[in-house]
Write a structure and sequence with these properties.
The protein contains 5 helices and 4 strands, in the order E-H-E-H-H-H-E-E-H. By secondary structure, the chain is of the alpha+beta class. It has one domain: Glutaredoxin (3-Layer(aba) Sandwich), CATH 3.40.30. A 4-stranded mixed beta sheet has the order 2-1-3-4, sandwiched between helices. Strand 1, helix 1 and strand 2 form a beta-alpha-beta unit.
């Protein structure tokens, strides 16, 4: 099963969900506005990616809160403010990918 982490407002997350439906891939959607990620989910994401690389510096929240002008611990800020995440985050069987990718979804869905 593929886990898609994102928000309903994110266009890239919507593409990932639509691709899974069209390809009839088994998936689980985690809406960050409704549920916080578990410690295990965070651990697997941070094993695959450096926390700073997961921060969406183009997001309105990043700009509004002034992250460009302050020092912060990326890992702690992501856990406290998941709206900073680049989405979607795709997870399956210990693998993690950030961003929408048809190739990743189809290859993971068939394995």
């Amino acid at each position: 099963m593929i886990q898609i982490i994102g928000t309903k407002k994110c266009k890239e997350t919507a593409k990932a969900i639509r691709t899974c439906k069209e390809q009839r891939l088994e998936y689980q959607f985690v809406d960050l506005t409704e549920r916080a990620l578990s410690e295990g989910e965070w651990r697997s994401i941070f094993q695959g990616y450096e926390p700073l690389s997961l921060i969406d510096s183009q997001s309105a929240y990043y700009t509004k809160e002034g992250y460009a002008f302050r020092e912060f611990d990326p890992q702690e800020e992501l856990k406290e403010h998941p709206q900073l995440l680049k989405t979607p985050i795709l997870r399956s069987k210990g693998r993690v990918h950030v961003g929408f990718s048809v190739d990743i979804l189809t290859s993971w869905g068939t394995n």
